[in-house]
Sequence to fold (149 residues):
Amino acid sequence: MHIFVDADACPVVGIIEEIAHKHNISVTLLCDTSHVLYSDYSEVIVVGSGADAVDYKLISICHKGDIVVSQDYGVAAMALGKGAYAIHQSGKWYTNENIDQMLMERHLNKKARRASQKNHIKGPKKSSVEDDERFAQSFEKLVLMVLAR
Fold:
């Protein structure tokens, strides 16, 4: 098992590395040239800044049984299609049972934004200590489940 992180603006990288280190699991952080990262634990792969370049690289190198951390539903869907596990940085697991609904909601929200002519969208709220704890618990539960298989 390997953990791959869509690390552009990912607020839980430290938590991921801490749990991975605890269980002796390799981690790869992927980012584009505008979000260069450094890590003492993880391998860092920097890809070109093209649209979705990080997403496509991540999907090309992940395999069945790996864990993918991404806030992008499309990346999660492709990871699930390869037999990998996927988790959102909020701690929500992506599954074959919920991914279609999530993709449909994303599509409908995008359509609604286009129709309203509003182009300014607030980013996600800053994560709290409770959010980080929720992610850590959910992520470690997923890691232990995958290790047990």
User: Anything to note?
Assistant: The chain has one domain: 2-148.
